[in-house]
Write a structure and sequence with these properties.
The chain is of the alpha+beta class. Helices cover about 40% and strands about 35% of the residues.
């Protein structure tokens, strides 16, 4: 008897998740495209994933507000790490926000660069607006580890 009911139960579970899965799949695609925008080395592409008045705050610092400031923030990383590569690790959903987990690798050979490699991970908590753009992003990574790598105090 268990064999007869198991497929039906699985079908119900899968069918019941279709709406959420579809929304989640769209957000995974959004996150992949966001990653590609970072890797394009075109700051305005990254900024285009945010609302016109969207914000990005990293490690409790001063927020970048609006697409112009967002593009300037992206540009600072892209120039400092000309070979930068951002990788999307995962995307999670929690109470209407999305947690975008990433890994950043690059060599600091830009202006006044140290020449050192960095390899660090972090995440952004996204709140989306009605147009499916990031309204608010709170980014977090281990700043101490990043600084050690940037300044050559940790072998990679």
């Amino acid at each position: 008897m268990k064999t007869r009911y198991t497929p039906l139960i699985i079908l119900i579970v899968i069918t019941g998740c279709n709406t959420d899965t579809s929304e989640y799949d769209k957000m995974v695609e959004f996150a992949r495209n966001y990653t590609d925008a970072w890797n394009s080395k075109t700051p305005e592409k990254m900024a285009s994933f945010y609302a016109e008045d969207g914000t990005l705050t990293v490690n409790n610092g001063a927020p970048a507000v609006g697409r112009k400031q967002l593009a300037e923030t992206a540009k600072s990383y892209m120039e400092a790490f000309p070979d930068m590569k951002l990788t999307m690790n995962s995307l999670a959903v929690n109470d209407g926000t999305y947690s975008y987990h990433w890994t950043f690798k690059g060599t600091n050979t830009g202006p006044n660069g140290t020449g050192n490699k960095v390899n660090f991970s972090g995440f952004e908590e996204w709140t989306m607006n009605k147009d499916r753009l990031v309204q608010k992003s709170i980014g977090t990574y281990d700043a101490d580890d990043y600084e050690k790598q940037l300044n050559g105090n940790k072998g990679l």
